[in-house]
Amino acid sequence: MALKVLYALDTARTQWYHFKAIIIAGMGLFSDAYDLFCLPPILRLLGRIYYQKSTDNFDNNDNNFVIHRHVDSALLGVAFLGTAIGQLVFGRLGDRIGRRRMYGLSLMVMILSALGCGFSICTSPSCVLVSLGFFRFLLGVGIGGDYPLSATIMSEFANKRTRGSFIAAVFSMQGFGILASSIVTMVVCGIFHGASHPKPKEKTPSEADLAWRLILMLGAIPAAMTYYWRMMMPETARYTALVELNVQQAAKDMEKVLDVSLSQIAEDESLTLPQDPSSYPLFSKQFLRLHGRDLFGCSASWFLVDIVFYSSNLFQSHVYGKYLGKKYKSNVYEDAIHVALFQAILAICSTIPGYWLTVYFIDRIGRRKIQMMGFLVMALVYFAIGIPYRTYWQDNINGGFMVLYGLTFLFANFGPNTTTFIVPAELFPARFRSTCHGISGAAGKVGAIIGAVGFGSASHGQTEDHKAVQILLVILGGVCLLGLAVTYFFTPETKGRSLEENEE
């Protein structure tokens, strides 16, 4: 049955509310990136504060005290575990209870856990890291819940002509979160540095323990600023009409936010949508027959790209030591500032352009082609870095290497890192849409854990096993080729069709 309200959603012109929804939905992704990318400079601070007396963690090459190589991977891994759980739980609740009702709850979990990260009252290294790990797990749960809800809400509000660009714009807020984390880190450390004036090789000042807490807690502000607007959002018209079976209420909600008259979208008062007696439950034989292939394609693609993407992020520790090693200062604040500056440059030159290339091209080229292109270019770059690594790049990380390294981020975001977020929000029926997006995202975070643990074990500062790094870089290239194959055989194109047409 063709409903006027759904047709109006698919054909609505781009309006102010669409851009407002992008900002409201994007703040969760902004906070996700902020909390992930503020961790590398914070680990430099934690290493100086809590491990300064440990000769086992002292690197004579750059006078840096660093946390044990498995601890930083563990802090990432526990956040990814929380994210996977949040995606599954909030994704399912978004279909059972409603997108809007769960939207505010996931954001509140993010806000409180971000504040909790800075309120560890412990003073011993192990106690601080356990406390930080606990709150980062909770933070991951909130972030994970935000993924399926943000993607689903944006897809159900958007028109079919620009839906891909709108969802990609929501996801692109990650790029600004990365940049914001770097700027905040540099500003906070700069203020503390100016106030304390510690000398080189001097014992780390006690005030530095406040700096990392402040950086983490500031990440709660953007999310808190959008909480009110999330609670004021109406339920999506598609959920109200197709899941709650209340077409009249869907029309009224749509009139509140979009420039469309009720007379254009109101159905006959006698119209009812009885529950389809042949409706099938999640993971039933009929569900798997109709949607199992799509769910496998979305989950496998997200799993593979997250192995590569988060391994690339951990590879930055290697680049810090090699490319910036001589520029490192023994001062704790300057140390963190240099790491944050490197991340900011990489975000401006590579990460953010990749996101916005997807925003511009996705409704022109299509999701499937962009995803295949991204996997292919990433594979070629990893082979170019990995195969000659020990003979050329090992002691020669120069401008050429940095260009290649930047391309991995450019084509991850102008490629599968963005499209895997978009496609699951377009393929599945309304009553399974949030759940299936959560399942796909959780599979991705399992891949992120593999990337964090696997690459973290081989690469750490200047003490990495060069042969292991070379092997892992080549493996990452192979993973990208596998992602290309999965996309080719299992990912359909969703461009230019309504959500209901894609479902069929």
Characterise this structure:
By secondary structure, this protein is mostly helical. It has one domain (14-260, 284-503): Growth Hormone, Chain: A (Up-down Bundle), CATH 1.20.1250. 75% of the residues lie in helices and 1% in strands. The chain contains 24 helices and two strands. It has helices spanning 4-11, 16-37, 39-50, 69-96, 99-117, 125-157, 163-196, 208-218, 220-225, 227-232, 237-243, 247-257, 262-265, 285-314, 316-323, 332-365, 367-386, 389-393, 399-413, 416-422, 424-427, 433-458, 466-490, 499-503; strands spanning 58-59, 64-65. Strands 1-2 form a two-stranded antiparallel ribbon. A hairpin with a 4-residue loop joins strand 1 (58-59) and strand 2 (64-65). 56% of the residues are buried. Residues 54-64 have low confidence and may be disordered. It comes from Prunus persica. It is found in: Membrane. This is Major facilitator superfamily (MFS) profile domain-containing protein.
Concise summary:
The chain is 75% helix and 1% strand. With 504 residues, the chain is mainly alpha-helical.
CATH architecture: Up-down Bundle
Mean pLDDT: 84
Distance between the termini: 13 Å
Order of helices and strands: HHHEEHHHHHHHHHHHHHHHHHHHHH
Strand tally? 2
What percent of residues adopt helix (DSSP H or I)?
Answer: over 70%
Number of helices: 24
Please tell me how large the radius of gyration is: 23 Å
For the largest sheet, list the strands in their spatial order. Answer: 1-2
User: How many structural units, i.e. domains?
Assistant: 1
Strand content: under 5%
Structural class: mainly alpha
Q: Please report the first level of CATH classification, the CATH class.
A: Mainly Alpha
What overall form do the CA principal axes indicate?
globular
CATH topology term: Growth Hormone, Chain: A
Oligomer: single chain
CATH superfamily: MFS general substrate transporter like domains
Largest sheet: 2 strands, antiparallel
| Weakly predicted, low-confidence segments | 54-64
